[in-house]
Amino acid sequence: MNNPPRFKLFDSHFHIIDKKFPLIENRGYLPDNFSTIDYLNKTKDYSVIGGTIVSGSFQGFDQDYLFTALAELGPNFVGITQLPVTVSDAELIHLDQTGVRGVRFNLRRGGSEEVENLDRFSRRIYDLVGWHTELYVDSKDLSALHNTLIQLPRISIDHLGLSRAGLPNLLSLIEKGIFVKATGFGRVDFPIKPVLQEITSINPEALMFGTDLPSTRAPRPYSDDDFLTVIDALGEKLAQKVFYENGVKFYRPKGLSNRC
After folding, report:
1. Structural domain boundaries of the chain?
2. What fold, for 8-19+30-251?
3. Which tens digits make up the pLDDT trace of 194-252?
4. CA 32/CA 214 separation, integer angstroms
5. 192: which of 152, 167, 168, 179 is 20 to 30 A away, CA to CA?
């Protein structure tokens, strides 16, 4: 893709899969290798300034792969990991120092802590290290969590909430200050453009773009057209916020924290 340099990208959601580290079969699935070199090659036509490595269900509570990937990619990149609620304060502080910025609850695939611990764990990590909590969840299921989520300090939802049927749930949470990732366009069952427009009309700070590479288990993989769809839907000025500014403010990477 001939990407105009003016569109800086903070890639708010991608996975690194390194088979030198433990992988856990999830519902009969194991991903192919996707190294930091693979990621950089895939995004070489973009002006990637930084981004967020997200732990998948198949990585469980392993942190070694994440430490390695963050060291290879540098201080403009951060991590979102999965942790048991029993993790010590000392380990949380160590993870924060290495560039981790949040905990993922994978309610769709498993491999993470149980939702019963969402409230107390989210409060604990925010109070101790200022982290947010990320949810991989079908937005149809958000109504049962609504009252809990709106009282928590900092929450993001993956992949636009996935489903058309749950959009009212998602939009009501955005009105209450929840953040959303414009990622995984091949995973959703609704037209992308009007949903991006509606979310940003509610809160232009709420939306953060990510490639979702390597698009594990997605019905279709990431495409350059996904990037262009954001520009077409939002216009250049607002698209730049979604591509870069919102993600940097939300994730606070060490190398970029003073640039927005």
Report:
1. 8-19+30-251
2. TIM Barrel (3.20.20)
3. 999 999 999 999 999 999 999 988 899 999 999 999 999 999 999 999 999 999 999 99
4. 9
5. 152
